[in-house]
Write a structure and sequence with these properties.
seven-stranded mixed sheet; alpha+beta; 4 domains
Amino acid sequence: MKHITILILFMFLGGTTNALAPTQLYVYDNVPSKIQLSTVYMNGAEITRVAKVELQKGDNKLIFRGLSAKIYEESIQVAVSGKATILSVHSKINVADEALYENDIMAYEDTIKALNNDIARLKANQDVFEKEKDLLVRNSDIQTKKKNESWASELSRTANFYRSRMQEINTNLYISGKSIRQINDQIDQLNEKLAALQTKAAQSSSQIIVMVQTKKVTTCKFGLRYMVDSATWRPLYNMRSPKMNKPVEFEFKAQIVNTTGVDWENVNIRLSTADPLTSSDIPQLTEWNIDVKRSPKSFEPKASEANYFRTYSDATADNKMGINDSVMQGNFFQEIEVTELNTEHPIADAHIIFSDGEPYMVDVDTYTLPANYEHFCVPKLDEGVYIIAKVTGWESFSLVEGQANVYYGDTYVGQTLINNQSIQDTLRLSLGKDSKVLVTRTFLNDQHLAKKSRSTVRETRGYQIAIKNNRGNPIKIEIHDQVPTSNNKEVKIKLEETADATISDKGELIWRHWVRAKQEKKSEVIFSIKYPKNFNVDMNTTRTIVAEPAPKMQQSKTPIYSVDD
């Protein structure tokens, strides 16, 4: 932080006398501040920064640099604790501020220059050793006329010197080469950091300039609060049923995405469902209309975590699109259903959320919810028996609409939707099939009859539904089936036997049974259809399944058989 003192002369005119009154302005450039809290909304974030500055007597100018370029200028608030008075606050939004990183860039460049000088010295030493090595090699021959004892002694001394010196030279060359490689590695790392810093310096940022006046030297704490866009969060729920007849563990998690241009390092996080961009005008009530909302039956898994949230334009609500690189592009947002009461969820512990557009998962809360377990089967479509957990109490937690992963034991069984717009207080979770409970649906051949008269035909159909509980405890099971209905008054349906099923106007049959351990329970359904003899009645007893396209038929080749002699 640069501390600059500026002398300002004010001229006061009084009668015929001019008086010069000097006033000092103390400038604190690039005041260090830390993000203390980030309140993340669905459409932005409120950032709270704190700083501690020793102010001088008189006027002080504080410049906070390196702030997000995506600040809403009208949202800036500055507070000071201590004996100081804020005179003014103004800002520079979305401007290039290369001076902010000037000192750091120069430090990197100076370090790289010093390392290159070290390499140059090492290479100069290597050159000296290489020349000495060449000199030894060129003078390694020993010339003498007589090979006597003195010649042998001279040869031994020369060989020892040659060996010792060559070892020293080679060792020095090896050490120098290793040092050069290590220094080059350091330079490569510093160049990467320098390039990243230069890129960051070229990016836009914001500044907040605060003018403060004090009557004496004092240390004050400053708080800066402002809104930024390009930040959001989405809920993600996990619902775990450890086993039958146990409460459901409900885990509330959140995915936070930060593309504000500033990393949040060791920051306290708070999630909010409020709308921070609400107008300050007096609110007016609009008509409260209740409508039917159809929830999707299933969810397709995301193909890529790059498309975190499905979005649509407020201009064309049906034209859905995905976001690739950031949470918000232009005027495209996603509409999320939240409760009418604003809620906040403080996150335990500080977190690091980098400004890289990636989703960071945080734990919000964990609840234990009561659940009643039942079995469910539609044998006409699938004879598999499903375990259903009916969860209550979830609606009291002011949850945000979102997907929930469902687990039974340690097995992932699918997804459901947490829909806070529903007036139902029970959430039905399918926990997969129970192999210990068997249900079969078979036709009663002795009831499959057709009687014809002179003008009409009367057909009778029947089938049996059998339940076998192989568990060691009783179960409650709900069976759904159906009988046909007629849209033609001349085609009449008569129920002969329904085995105490509840019958709807659309022909749906529902049984609710308690089945004891190891017990088998059977129910029969018999109905008749009467219609004119000249009618061709379609019973619709087939069903459609999805199959792979059939391969093109080719002419079969005659197989070739080999016969051993």
